[in-house]
Automatic annotation (TrEMBL):
Residues 249-262 have a biased composition (Low complexity). InterPro entries: FecR (IPR006860). Pfam families: FecR (PF04773). This is FecR protein domain-containing protein. It comes from the Bacteria.
């Protein structure tokens, strides 16, 4: 049966939209697919830096040379980002992971390596912040890393779990739970409950930065949902064209041995929920 003109036009439009969705979903600010970006630069935790100010309060080094700095610029593995005494920076990964750098901080882009200063990490997928002595890694969590004198590293877990162990095997792995804090170098970490005032202080500055540098990209989940929706519409058009052109077909009564309409299929046996194994924080 021939498809009506409006159905052909709608099917063409939906098919084109579905084909273009992956391109839309991969665009994040100025970066292309799979690009890490400098999502924003904030001055004094109160306002976005102008195009002229960004380069004066923040530096990006590549191969020993300073790059022109602007919000939305693409970052490459090995680039070093350094914030000045007044600058906060937001670095965003394609997975949706974000790192908020406080003033006076620096790190190499990879996950984050050779980190110095203070960083708040919101993780989607595997991610790690690595200093000269400590690697704080996790999957699906939020945590703070702050370096101190003599290579000391304070780790505070805001959500999820983080595991700490020694690269030299000096102690057994230690799992840090939500709301705990510990110094991970030079001694073995001994997690204790974080002070509420410390947690609130961190949450306050993180929320200020979040409001100034909102997410400006399609999320992978949003693209997936949209793709499924468009695909369902296409299937409905193709499957319903005969009904639309020839009229509805009466439902056939269920025969012997048939499953009556509306009867749910047997559910498969479920599996117990399991917690993801946290990635380690390794100390040298």
């Amino acid at each position: 049966m021939r498809m009506s003109g409006w159905r052909r036009w709608l099917l063409w439009w939906l098919s084109l939209s579905l084909a273009l969705l992956p391109l839309a979903g991969c665009e994040t600010l100025g970066g292309g697919p799979g690009t890490v970006v400098l999502a924003g630069v904030v001055i004094d935790g109160e306002r976005l830096a102008s195009a002229q100010e960004a380069g004066a309060v923040l530096r990006v080094w590549r191969g020993g040379a300073a790059l022109p700095v602007q919000a939305g610029m693409a970052l490459m593995p090995g680039d070093r980002v350094e914030t000045g005494p007044r600058a906060y920076a937001v670095v965003r990964w394609p997975s949706g992971s974000e790192v908020y750098m406080r003033p006076g901080s620096a790190a190499d882009i990879g996950s984050l390596r050779r980190a110095i200063g203070e960083f708040f990490v919101k993780v989607r997928g595997l991610f790690a912040v690595e200093t000269d002595f400590v690697r704080a890694g996790a999957k699906g969590t939020a945590y703070l890393v702050r370096t101190g004198p003599g290579g000391s590293v304070l780790v505070t877990v805001f959500d999820g779990r983080v595991q700490v162990d020694s690269l030299q095997g000096r102690w057994l792995p230690v799992t840090m739970e939500r709301g705990s804090t510990a110094v991970a170098h030079p001694q073995a970490p001994q997690p204790v409950a974080a002070a509420p005032a410390e947690l609130q202080q961190t949450q306050a500055w993180v929320e200020r930065i979040e409001k100034l540098v909102p997410v400006r990209s399609y999320s992978g989940l949003g693209v997936a949902i949209t793709a499924v929706t468009i695909g369902a519409l296409i299937a409905a058009i193709l499957g319903g064209k005969s009904g639309g052109d020839r009229g509805s077909t009466p439902a056939t009564p269920a025969g012997r041995g048939a499953t009556p309409a509306g009867t749910p299929a047997p559910a498969p046996a479920g599996t117990p929920d399991s917690q993801p194994t946290p990635a380690p924080i390794r100390l040298r």
